[in-house]
Design brief:
S-adenosyl-L-methionine-dependent guanine N(1)-methyltransferase that catalyzes the formation of N(1)-methylguanine at position 9 (m1G9) in tRNAs. Probably not able to catalyze formation of N(1)-methyladenine at position 9 (m1A9) in tRNAs. It is built from 12 helices and 8 strands. With about 325 residues, the protein is an alpha/beta fold.
Length: about 325
C-alpha cells in the first residue's frame, strides 16, 4: 500500500507521545504515593489500592457516565416499568370507583345523609323498629316446620332470616318481626348464632309459642303461593305469616294445608295479576320465593303502594316472570 499521509504519521506520533507521557505520569504518581506513605508493606498495599480506586473511578466516569437518566436502563426494562405503572394506576382508579360506589349505595339504601355518625344511625334504626312494634305492620315467620330439615336447609333458612332482618333495618317504614315456634335449643337457633353476627341482639320477638295461638285467628293471613286469593294491600290490623320452610324436595301445599287446618285466611302475592310468563331456555316458571324475597316485596309495596314496583324488586327474571308493561 502507499505511504501514509504526513498528517496520519503526525497523529500516530502524538498518540505514542501522549501514551508514553501517561505511563510516565502513572509511574511517577505510584512512586510518589509509595514515598509519602509509611515504608511498611501494609502502607504500600493500602496506597496502591487507593490509587487503583481513583484510576478506576476516572475510567468509569469517562466511559460509562450517561447523558441522561434513561440511559442507565435498557429499552426492555423501561417498557416493563411503564407497564407496571399502568397497572398500579388502574388499580388506584378501580379502588376509587369502588369507594364512590359504596358511598352512593349507603346514601341510597339508608335514605339519610352520610355525614351522620354510626351511633346516630344505629339509634335512628332502633327508634324506627321500636315504633313499628307499637304501630307498624306485623310479620310472623313460622319456624315450627324445621324439625325435618337438613343442616344445609337450616343454613339456607338462617341466611334468609339474616337478609330479611337487614332489609327491614334499611326500610323507612319497617315491619315488626316475630319468630314463632323458635326454641333456643333447636339446630336452627344454633345455626342462626353461627351464621348471623349479633343475632342475639336482633330487635324482634322470639317465642316458642305457635303463631296460631299467639294471635287471634281472624287477624292472621298466611302468605302461600298455593292460595286462590291475591293479596290486595298491607293492612296494619292484620298479621302476615311466612312459612319458614326450605324444602329441596319441594313438597307442595305444606303451608297452605297448615293454614287450612287452623281455619286461617290465605293469600298469595299478585304475581299473576301484574306479571306474565316469559320464554326462557329451560321453560321454567315458579312463584315460590324465599322469605326475604317475599318480605322485600311487602316492604316495598308498603312504602310505595305500587305492586309493579314491589314485584319488580322481589321477583327476578330467573323465576320466568316479567312485568306486563315491559312486554307491551
Amino acid at each position: 500500500m502507499g505511504e501514509p499521509y504526513k498528517g496520519q504519521r503526525t497523529k500516530r506520533m502524538d498518540w505514542k507521545l501522549e501514551g508514553s507521557a501517561q505511563k510516565t505520569e502513572s509511574r511517577v504518581l505510584q512512586e510518589h504515593e509509595i514515598t509519602l506513605d509509611d515504608p511498611g508493606d501494609d502502607g504500600v498495599s493500602e496506597s496502591f489500592q487507593l490509587l487503583q480506586i481513583d484510576v478506576g473511578c476516572d475510567h468509569w466516569e469517562q466511559e460509562t457516565l450517561p447523558t441522561g437518566s434513561a440511559a442507565w436502563c435498557s429499552k426492555n426494562v423501561q417498557r416493563k416499568q411503564r407497564h407496571w405503572e399502568k397497572i398500579v394506576a388502574a388499580k388506584k382508579s378501580k379502588r376509587k370507583q369502588e369507594k364512590e360506589r359504596r358511598k352512593a349505595n349507603r346514601v341510597e339504601n339508608s335514605g339519610i345523609y352520610p355525614q351522620h355518625s354510626k351511633r346516630f344511625l344505629r339509634s335512628l334504626i332502633k327508634e324506627r323498629l321500636l315504633e313499628a312494634k307499637h304501630s307498624g305492620p306485623r310479620l310472623c315467620i313460622d319456624l315450627s316446620m324445621t324439625n325435618h330439615m337438613s343442616k344445609k336447609e337450616l343454613s339456607r333458612l338462617a341466611g334468609q332470616i339474616r337478609r330479611l332482618y337487614g332489609s327491614n333495618k334499611k326500610a323507612d317504614r319497617p315491619f315488626w318481626i316475630y319468630l314463632t315456634g323458635f326454641t333456643t335449643d333447636s339446630p336452627l337457633y344454633e345455626e342462626c348464632l353461627r351464621m348471623n353476627d349479633g343475632f342475639s341482639s336482633y330487635l324482634l320477638d322470639r317465642t316458642e309459642e305457635d303463631c296460631f295461638s299467639l294471635f287471634p285467628l281472624e287477624t292472621l293471613v298466611y302468605l302461600t303461593p298455593d292460595s286462590d286469593h291475591a293479596l290486595e294491600n298491607v293492612d296494619l290490623n292484620k298479621v302476615y305469616i311466612l312459612g319458614g320452610l326450605v324444602d329441596e324436595s319441594i313438597q307442595k301445599k305444606v303451608t297452605f294445608q297448615k293454614a287450612q287446618e287452623h281455619s286461617v285466611k290465605t293469600a298469595r302475592l299478585p304475581i299473576q295479576e301484574y306479571m306474565v310468563k316469559c320464554q326462557n331456555g329451560k321453560n321454567y316458571h315458579s312463584e315460590i320465593l324465599t322469605i326475604n324475597q317475599v318480605f322485600d316485596i311487602l316492604s316495598t309495596y308498603f312504602e310505595t303502594q305500587n305492586w309493579p314496583e314491589a314485584l319488580k324488586k322481589g321477583v327476578s327474571s330467573r323465576k320466568g316472570y316479567v312485568l306486563r308493561n315491559s312486554v307491551e
